[in-house]
Design brief:
Protein name: Histidine ammonia-lyase
Pathway: Amino-acid degradation; L-histidine degradation into L-glutamate; N-formimidoyl-L-glutamate from L-histidine: step 1/3
Radius of gyration: 27 Å
InterPro entries: Aromatic_Lyase, Fumarase/histidase_N, HutH, L-Aspartase-like, Phe/His_NH3-lyase_AS
Keywords: Histidine metabolism, Lyase
Strand order of the largest sheet: 4-6-7
Helix content: 40-55%
CATH class of the largest domain: Mainly Alpha
Number of strands: 9
Subcellular location: Cytoplasm
CATH topology of the largest domain: Fumarase C, Chain A, domain 2
Shape: elongated
Length: 522
Amino acid sequence: MNISPVSLSTGPLGVGDVVAVARHDAPVALTSDAEAAIQASRAVIAELAADDSAHYGVSTGFGALATRHIVAERRAQLQLSLIRSHAAGSGPEVEREVVRALMLLRLSTLATGRTGIRLETARAYVDLLNHGITPVVHEYGSLGCSGDLAPLAHCALALLGEGMVDDADGRRVAAGQALRDAGLTPITLAEKEGLALINGTDGMLGQLVLALHDLKSLLTAADIAAAMSVEALLGTDAAFAEDLIAMRPHPGQADSAANLRALLHGSAIMESHRTPECTRVQDAYSLRCSPQVHGAARDTVRHAADVADRELAAAIDNPVVTIDGRVESNGNFHGAPIGYVLDFLAIAVADVAGISERRTDRMLDMGRSQGLPAFLADDPGVDSGHMIAQYTAAGIVSELKRLAVPSSVDSIPSSAMQEDHVSMGWAAARKLRRAVDGLTRALAVEVLTATRALQLRSPLRPAPATAAVCEAVRHHGSATQPSGPGVPGPDRFLAPEIESVVQQVRSGALADAASSVAGQLR
């Protein structure tokens, strides 16, 4: 894959930039305007450091200790102590792509020239990313206010040559060794720099951006899964008609319905029951209301993307160096704007997974599946078919409901009540990542089940687009399962088949297969 470098200027990054650096190791570079802005704001801090007045983060303690004046000869120790003490994370390690995303976003704020960092410190952060050195960051340590403190402190610690990191080859080594191996030198922090390196919402924002990137693809996959289930259950596309959908003008609903119409176009299975003898006048909600549910999730993603775009344009630090040279305390580090949409997305994700699981269950129930064998089994009773695959989906959906409980309504005061209201946005981000993975797996179970059900409708043929998806599913896992995922027959080891489709849903391969026939899906 040819990855273009990402330039860090005084302007905002895009979602694609974050994904390129976090997942594909795109190199980063500071532009000349960013370097000039960094140097200008550092000159302001250097001037303040030379006087005897109290300036937060320059010549005072932090948080509840902000009333303590720090003499000039102790200020380097002040910054070093800040990083060491705040690198207090615990628990499981955070994924590499999340750490790289939060590092990039912190560097993006440094590039705005609003933090007072030295140019050599910003360049050292660039070197850390470009040499693939990834600090070890832990699950717990951020309350989503005053910045993602512990996660960012662990990253800053690596700049000092302390703590543990993973090098470009994935080896766990001491940070000092990783820097030496890469030909880099640890930095020594000057006034204000420790605070500038940790006082941002970069961890929660990075996870929001990655989730938005994934959900754009997953909601298309949800439409594909729904179309396959509608077909497999001898449903109708009449409720998806453009004029009916337009009576409730939500843009997400319109997009999902358009996808369903394109995916189901030309289906011989659907034509087979468009006869006077068919007495069904409407389908169950999980089929008929798919555009409404998927569309509402799409609109939620759009709202969250608007928030992310504003945050990507933000310069978050406290205190901040203003354009006219003032150094001012502020509350922009509070994670509420991000925390709210992270929680909102978790609700939408749980609901899309929930309606998917209901469609899966209908295909397995003889009383509702319109003539399909029980559990799609080859010999029901001897074989169990997809019975336990539905259990897997149900277990996932149950967890997603728990993960949909908002984090952002919680707050535990910290720093001796100085920080008496926090966002818990980091926790919201962590649970959304797990929810996105769960949605991927629930949709994979539905697609795999629908693939088997559609083949059981043979000799009737599904729509060209859904047939292309079935072919992609069957061929993807043939190396591990000679009969291929989704192919009817006696019971087989099902976990590899599910995982095969999980990979296809996650990569966008199924959307590519459908689009090759139906045209670009929305």
